[in-house]
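Q: I'm teaching a short session on how sequence maps to structure, and I want students to see two examples side by side rather than one. Could you give me a first protein with its sequence written out and its structure tokens following it? Keep the formatting plain so it prints cleanly on a handout.
A: Of course. Example one:
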Amino acid sequence: MRTQFYILLSLKTPQGFLDYGQYFFGNDRETAYGLFRQLKGDENIKDSCLLHIDLMETIDELPVRIKTICCTLDEVGANCKLIARELFRVKNLEEMG
């Protein structure tokens, strides 16, 4: 089985956390981990935190949460911009190489 990496965006609701977005990195561990380290947010998760970003890995087709950060709305916006820019760069370099 191939391991897949992705970043999961979720928000807190009265019923629990709701996933609302994913960015897929395929099997590129270095890119996924490197990009996650650049994201803005707090690793200290508090109950009052409404927005989470998780680094996820699938192992034998089961999702496993590697790391989580808590973000403000502004941080989520900046992080989404960074993720999109990095994915664009990586995917275009792959096609050129």
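Q: Perfect. Now a second example for contrast.
A: Example two:
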Amino acid sequence: MEVGNCTSEFLLLGLSDDPALQPILFGLFLSIYLVTVLGNLLIILAVISDFHLHTPMYFFLSNLSFIDICFISNTVPKMLVNIQAQRKDISYTECLTQAYFLNTFAGMENFLLTIMAYDRFVAICHPLNYTVIMNAQFCVLLVLLSWIIIFWVSLMDILLVKKLTFSPGTEIPQFFCGLAQLFKVATSDMLINNIILYVGTILLGVFPMTGILFSYFQIVSTLWKMSSSVGKYKAFSTCGSHLCVVSLFYGTGLGVYLSSSVTHSSLRTIIASMYTVVTPLLNPFIYSLRNKDVKGALGALLSRAAPGL
């Protein structure tokens, strides 16, 4: 049965076909999912509950944690359901929906990391004007505009996918549906789609990354001019967590892109799992372990919650 020009379902090949590994994979990914959701949720609650964290930097951090929850919730639950039911199928509508939101949340994380780099640039390079430039209305506007842009870009991409033709029972060598995977398994002409995909990658990937590099170039230039080594360390320490998250996000993202030319499907799947699962898992730990303010807020939040347990 087909829907329009497309098959009614796809087959997600997942991480392994070995029946003996399925319970292990289920337990592993369920644990990762629960820890990721709990960790990012604690970051959000800590920022909300502690008025000392009601600053632009932590406003953006709480938004990043929310996106990480959405990011992993878009892929892992379906994988767990398929493992438990011993099935691999995903409907055409579910697959396109998953691809849409995967593209949306990945794009939003990209935008947020760029905004957070700009926030650190203003804080270090223009400290006297920081509260004026990074006012509450401007911060909300930056996040809102990012959502609007990425929603429309993702919608355009999905509309292009809807025009493609797929063979019945098309296999996707991943545990989730993504735009790149759908483009590869389509049987129709891909010239227009590939051009738009590459242009979108440049606009939504290269430009934000350039903004991050420019921000940190200015930050390093400003710190280099400081005479106090203590001041340099204190100023740059606020960027440490962000740099770790940026390296993790873009490093795994680049790995996914480069792995597309690798013929070994299991290697591609492992790298993709790093991008879609491990990155949201590690982000809250990176920020909580490297940031005294976040650790203090988390400690206060847990101490208040403990008596009620």
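Q: What should students look for in example two?
A: Point them to this: The chain has one domain: 2-308. Also worth mentioning: Strands lie at 2-3, 6-7, 9-12, 89-91, 170-172.
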